[in-house]
Amino acid sequence: xxxxxIVLLLLAAVAITCIYIFIPSNITVSAVTTxxxxxxxxxxxxxxxxxxxxxxxxxxxxxxxxxxxxxxxNAVDVVLRDGNDTVNTKLILIFPGxxxxxxxxxxxxVAGANPFSRLHAYNKAVDIKKSMDSVLSKLKSLTNxxxxxxxxxxxxxxxxxxxxxxxxxxFNHYPSTNEIYSxxxxxxxxxxxxxxxxxxxxxxxxxxxxxxxxxxxTALPVNKLLRQTNSIMQMRMIPGNxxxxxxxxxxxxxxxxxxxxxxxxxxxxxxxxxxxxxxLVTNRINEPDTTKWITKIYIPVY
Length: 302
What we know:
This protein is α+β, with helices and mostly antiparallel strands. It folds into two domains: 25-148, Alpha-D-Glucose-1,6-Bisphosphate, Chain A, domain 4, CATH 3.30.530; 155-300, Regulatory factor, effector binding domain (Multidrug-efflux Transporter 1 Regulator Bmrr, Chain A, Alpha-Beta Barrel), CATH 3.20.80.10. The protein contains seven helices and 13 strands. The strands form two sheets. It has an eight-stranded antiparallel β-sheet with strand order 6-11-13-12-8-9-7-10. The protein is elongated.
């Protein structure tokens, strides 16, 4: 019996010694992946609290809440929380060049001097590592499709509309649907008067101008060149590279899509050639339900 207790004590001593040798007083947990997206777009994505709650947090995560506490360029502090248990982590984005970003995520746990607290901290670190790997796996998968990052599907194409007539006016407010269509109708009347055929959808652009004013420009594709007047101009659209998206919704949806397309252009180091145009696929006057409005947005780029 005495020998049994001696062996037991020796085993306990070996176990405790192993804990002190292999589990440090401060445990660093880290996970790494490569995401198929520029660092600037990824930074906006992970800096959005809705991204974590709606898309990234795994159902089996040890921590139920992931909160962005602070952020600086290409680094985001994320707090993992479950009740009163919190862990401070840091997500760092490294852009080596090209179209991808290295995502490095780490945290540090204080294990203490007590062997039991060290063992507890080690088990917790294992669970955190599993959660980090799961989140980064989701992030990598989501970034394979830019639509997940920007919220819209962006394609590249040209345009068949090359001959346009256009007109513009200034407002001290964002133009309403009726005000947009007032200019569209003016162009349509001029096309009819000039025996020209309208060959496509009306289009418009709203641009901030001077202080407290915006410029509304509308255009209409026609089948031939028309004489200019004091208020109606002739335009030629050069077929080239356009970034295009299509959205369903009201003007707020269109403006958000335009902002996201500008983000895409900036993130991918592209340069715009001219102003954007929104194509009115749906006649908004005849359709009062804004959720059914379909608009195509074109931005010419180099």
